[in-house]
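Hey,

The postdoc asked me to send both predictions to you directly instead of through the lab channel. I've kept everything plain text so nothing gets mangled by the mail client. Protein one:
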Amino acid sequence: MGISGHWAFVFGVLGNIISFIVFLSPIPTFNKIYKKKSTEGYQSIPYVIALFSCMLWIYYAFLKTNTTLLITINSFGMLIETIYVGLFLYYAPKKARVNTVKMLLLTVVGGFGAIIVVTQFVFKGAVRGQIVGWICLIFSLCVFVAPLGIVRQVIKTKSVEYMPILLSVFLTISAVMWFFYGLLLKDLNIAAPNILGFIFGILQMILYAMYRKKDNKPIVNVNVEVQNPVIILDDNKKIPELTEEQIIDIVKLGKLVCSGKIQMASTLNQNAAKEVKLTNLQTEEA
């Protein structure tokens, strides 16, 4: 084993460690699903495609040599993805459950079964390994492209509530490790898809950074109390100036009021005097 072989083993081990974390990263998501007893806005596509991809890579590893590290991590991946899909089916609403079952039948049962039958009976030797390698390359790209459905949802809703950011971060790191592993082994089928995986991982983290702040904005509760209306006089407002005609009218009105009061007073005095005279006459007659 040359220097490149030693480095390939190092990156392969690192790839196993990071990929192990990648496979465990959806645990917080499924913990949330378990607590709420509902899958809500989460999708099963990434987990079904990841399960299918693990099965393909195990098949490819058995057709190649020096690929023990591929077998170990993808065996664990197949087990954990099966658990994830099972939990999703248990808590998903009817429509999401039916779509997930259809996808499983199409990929894991029909697709994987067809690949094994065709490659075993149609192709032989090194060609078989090449064909399976190309298929693995395509579906590895699908693993990285699958979260684009969530990316679309994030852009549409401007919310990262349903974006599994841990999965995005560790997928990006894992892509770097497996890229160097494939490059050092001179296996294009392993190296190539991880380039796109790195790009998509960075894209998801940028979107998360953009929309995370909007999700964290504090909600302000405004309680409006309706009270009895109060009239507020502004002391700063000036009384409008009166015109000469308005002043003359006010003076006339004042005179009329005063003359009216005088006339009323004189009338009252006259009536009082008359009453006094009548009283005196009645007294004298008596």
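Protein two:
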Amino acid sequence: MPAAFSDRRLGRLLPLLLCISLLEGSPAGPDVATEELKPAGKEISYDVLEYEIVLPGVSGTALQKIVSVGSPTKVELTCKLEEHSDLKNPQVTWKRRNETISHTSKTQNSWTIQLTVSESSHLGSYSCVLKGEVEVSATFHLQVPKIEGKEKTLITYERDLAVMICKTEYAPMAWTWYMTNGTELVAINPSSDTNKFQIKIQSANVNRLEILKLTKEDSGIYWCEAAFRLGSSKRRFEVKVLSIMAPLKPFIAVVVEVVILVTTIALYEVYSKRKGEEGEREFDQIEQLKSEDDIAGERK
């Protein structure tokens, strides 16, 4: 009886001892059950940008609007008919390329879609087409902010300073300047040659490149690039470095022409003077001969 009782007690204690051993031997760390019950991360909230195109309802109308998007956001695009438009109860279709999109809200004369633009593939053209007695359309072009200004040629002279400025509507994450080497773009690193290049940040959305002590070798194509979270924009500059004598060439040409003209006039005067003197000598010789003939005739 006591032996049987001891066996039963030992049988109950062995599982308990085994559990204690496993718990003591397990590595420190978060409890698995607790980790699984952690709440899911919060959904990212974006500001909502609203854009609208008002359509007059005149047949053939096709309006467009550029929408600059530099970072992930939500965009509401609305097509709206003018209040007194003749186009009544039109059939409205939203499209992105050839894909049809259903509008998220509408009123009596406006239709809206809401987009979450979180990556570059969400950029592009979104169009609404209104069909009824006539057909009208509007297109929103979602794109990375462009760098302001047109491509331009900067003409300067040796030993002078070239300044290029890039500006965007929204502040980019980073600015990069490049110079063209054949077909390749080589990033400009001012820290490697402070005597040649300087990059100055006038503000978050304005960047400036200065090329110092210009030589003819500095002529070429330069680019500035603004990097945004959804893509990048570039702007092209062409730099032409002329010889320091270049601006003097027209002046030198005029001086040469004046010198030639003055020389020609001087030579003509010398020639005329000599010709006059020769004519006087000939006249004197003729007069002298006449005088001699007259004297000879009187003697006879």
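Summary for protein two, as requested: The longest strand covers residues 231-242.

Thanks,
C.
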